[in-house]
Every structure is written in C-alpha cells, then in structure tokens.
Amino acid sequence: MQETLVGVKTWRRLPDSTILVPQDASMIHVSSFPVSKAVTSWWKDIPRPVQMRVEPYLCDVVLTKRIPIWNNTGCQLAAYMNPSAPRCQTKYLKWICDSARMPITETRPNRFVLPESDHSKTEMPPQPWLLTARDAFVSMCGHIVTQGGLVHTTANCMATGYRNQALLFQKRCPISLATRFEARGGGNITCEQGAPFSDNIVYHKRVFVVGEVDDTYVYHIHLEIMPRLIYHLDFLIANPDIKIMVGCDSKKGAERTLAGLRHGLLSMQPLMDIVGLDMERLVVHQHVYANEVYLPMEGGCQDPVYNTWQILHMRNKFMQMLQINEAEKVGDGDGSKPIMMLMKRSSDAKHTRNGHDSVRQWSDAFTNQIAQQLQDEFPMFQVTIFSDRNETMMRCHACQIQVFNKVRVLIGVHGAGLANMLYMKSNSAVIEFGPYGNDGRCLLGGGPFSRIASVLSHNYMIHHPPFEEFKWIKEGATSEFNVTRFVVHIDSFLKSIGFVQ
Question: b vs e for 110-138, b when ≥16 Cβ sit within 10 Å of the residue's Cβ?
C-alpha cells in the first residue's frame, strides 16, 4: 500500500477491489474496482455503428439565437457541469455537427460515428473506485468532512457550482462537533446556523453515499445513482446494516422539494426491487454523521460514457437476473417482424417530470397518427407505442428491460425514457426527436442519449423540426409538428444503415 499527502489529508491507495475502513479517523482509503475482463472484452468487441447523423438545420439554428453555442468557448451551464464534460467542449461539438450533418432525404452512409462509439479505437473509460473514511460528517449531497479535511468530488452534476456549499458545510458543521455524538451515543445534533440545506445531522453507524444534484430525476437515478449501487451490490447485500444516502435534490420551497423527493423514490423503487435492496435502507435528504463512510466513484453528469463500466455492470446484472439471452434474434413482434418502438411523453403522467414542457408532449391522437404513418412506411416492422401512462409498465422496470431488449428501432422525444436503449442489443438504431435548438442536451456527442448510444455502439439520428413547424395545443399542454418530414428523415436514416431497402 502506498501513502501520499494531499494538502492536509493523508490518503492510502489500496490494492484493487479492497474495501477497508481506516482505523485512524484522519486517514482516507481509496481502492480501484476494475471491471471484469469479460465485460471489457464484450465491450471492445462490439462492432462500430454504421452511422450517426443530424440534419443541417440543428447545426445552423444555434447561430440564430441570442447566445449561440458555437460562439461560446466555455460551458453553457458553467456551474452545472465540470468544464471537462463533453457538453462543454464547443469546438468538439461543432466538429461533430459539421461531420454528421446530412439532408433528411440522404440515404448514403457517410460512415460518421462518435469516436467514443468505436470501441476498438477509443480510449478506455475510467475505472471505478471506492473511497472509505472513518468518523465523518456527510452532507446530503455527498460532501465528506473528516479530521483530515474535506472530500469533494467534481464530475457529478453541480459539483463545481456546489464547491462553496461543500466549504460552507465544512465550516458550519466542523468535525469537532462529533464529540457531541460520542457523548450521546448517537441521536442527532445541530450544526452552527447557516449550514447548506439543513442545520440538522443524524447519526448512522455506516453509510453508502450516492446523493448528488438531480438525484430525484428518472434519468439520473437510472444512469448515475443505481449503477453505482449495483456495482457494489454484493457488498451491500452482505451488509444490510449499511444505510444508503440519497436525496440531495433541493428546490425553492419545502413543498416542491418534498414533491421532488417523492417522485424520485417512486422512480427508484422498481430498480431497487429488481436487485433486492430494501427502500427502508435509504437515508433521504439528511446530513449524516457516520463511523464508516463508503463513497463510490461519482456519476458523470449526463455523460454515461464516464460511467461506462458501472452502467454495463448494471445491465449485465439485470440480464442475468431476468435470464435474458442476448444471443436471441432481435425482435419477435408478431412472430416474424422486428419491433419499432415509439415512445410517448404525457403531461399528466405521474412517472414523468416537467409536465409543463409542452414541446416534448404529444396527445394520444397525435401519437397514434405518428405510429400509423410509421407503420404505413415501414411494413417490415411491428410499430408499437410505449406510453408513460402505462402504470403497470412504469412500475415494473424488469418488464421494461424485457420489452426493450426486443426492440430493433427506438424512436422518442428527448427525455429519460430514451435511456431504455441501454437494454437494446448493441448496434441497434435510435432516433431522438430533439426539440431544443440552442441547448447542448440535443447536440450529437454532447447530449446524454447520444452518449448512451456510444456505450452500446448504436446507430443514432437526431431530428430537429424548425420552430415554425410546431403547433401548440394549449389544452393538455401538448404540441404537434410535421410528421411526414419526420418519417422521411427516419426512412433515409434506416436505409443509410441498411435496416431497410
């Protein structure tokens, strides 16, 4: 083992896959947890996709905005993301847009793919690690205060923006207050007035920390919170006394914060059920003092490539538990046709956030119209609709995994539901309906869903309707657009990758 001094903190690097809690409260152990060779080999052997593409309008429309992305040399959300995040690399994103832009009627394969999706050539994603500390205060957002100093990770959402909150937590909740816990033998104490989010600290002997900003949203739970838990699932199952800290997310006002926490727990329940983790183990939206603290490598904010190994480990665990055979032929819709899935977001679905966002919500009638035009254009597929109002399906994540593993072509508006492409077989086809013209979330290579596509080497297309195409339906808070143009674009994309003739 090797010891190094970093500032006032003493770190000890342990052998791979070692979980050991320091005896000295001033010490912090960090151990690498390399992914298995089987997963690494499987990932490297996935063939590169045929094509990833966007229509030229998406690349050009940003120049019409008040603050065009291409003119911004920094991150559009400087406090939200680490400056190294792909979404902050403006020149890189512009190069991708220029390389991937194609007319919506073009059926030739330009063969452009994100470098991260060519696993034979791209750099290996970072290996997971686990940090352990002793006798520490832990904020609900994952900041750890020990006798050796402050631990503050920087890759998760708002990590850079919350640096001041971390320092304030350390100042208002100094580790010297731990003597109060020791005197009482547990219970709870109050920090000095002005601690971020809450002045109260509760005691738990052992905690596993996965709380981070936006941890009540479905996407972040699915791709950033649960993969970190499941990567250390055997350890958590073997030690049921270890509590799991989550629920950093805070809104303006207690009522909105509580509503967000409830939604997050509702979204987390089906995933916890699959792997046998009890929801009663969760410590939600509370600062904690613990004798033993376990902090896994943080979630890369909206960049699943950063968390490739945790995500693939979770995927493999689910596939094994559900006895899904990856070698089976993709699609079995009506006995012969592969499945083309159309995903629908609704304004009144309790499992979907942002019900005010009418640009991403379609009425039932309009969704049926899209599905019918797709079925008419692509009779070789069985077109099905996946709705967020399907209560049975939304409460059963195992059911979603089984369904999406049979999907050959996935079509959906930008939103958390697209994360289910994770369970499709590699080299499938995904079409993202990106409604935001000057937002990095919908740019190829910067948006989270094109990044998930890179992990599985999916063929990928982003469709962005011009603003004048939209029709706003006040009743029901939905929108409509030019379906024919959308279907033409999908047709040329599928022809260019050889999915249709």
Answer: eebbbebbebeeeeebeebbbbbbbbbbb
Range of the domain at 287: 2-32+129-296
Do both 118 and 148 map to the same domain?
Answer: no
Residues 154, 299 contacting (CB under 8 angstroms): no
User: For the segment 434-453, what is each residue's pLDDT rounded down to a tens digit?
Assistant: 888 767 788 999 999 999 99
Residues facing 282 on adjacent strands? 244
Please name every residue paired with 29 in a beta bridge, in sequence order, or none if there are none: 12, 132
Same domain, 274 and 159: yes
Output the pTM of the full model.
Answer: 0.93
**71 and 155 share one domain:** no
Closest CA to 59 of 98, 9, 30: 98
d(CA 223, CA 157): 13
Yes or no: say if 54 and 464 are a contact pair by the CB < 8 Å rule.
yes
The pLDDT averaged over each successive group of 10 residues in the chain (501 residues) is 40 87 89 94 97 92 76 80 90 94 92 96 95 96 93 91 92 91 77 92 96 94 97 98 95 89 94 96 96 95 96 96 82 72 83 70 93 98 92 89 96 94 97 83 93 98 89 83 96 97 90
Residue 453, CA distances (Å) to 49, 209, 238, 349, 447 in order = 9, 28, 34, 26, 10
Q: Are strands 459-463 and 287-296 parallel, antiparallel or unpaired?
A: unpaired
Q: Are residues 116 and 138 in the same domain?
A: no
What angle, rounded to 10 degrees, do the helices at 254-275 and 397-404 form? 60
Q: What is the pLDDT of residue 5?
A: 33
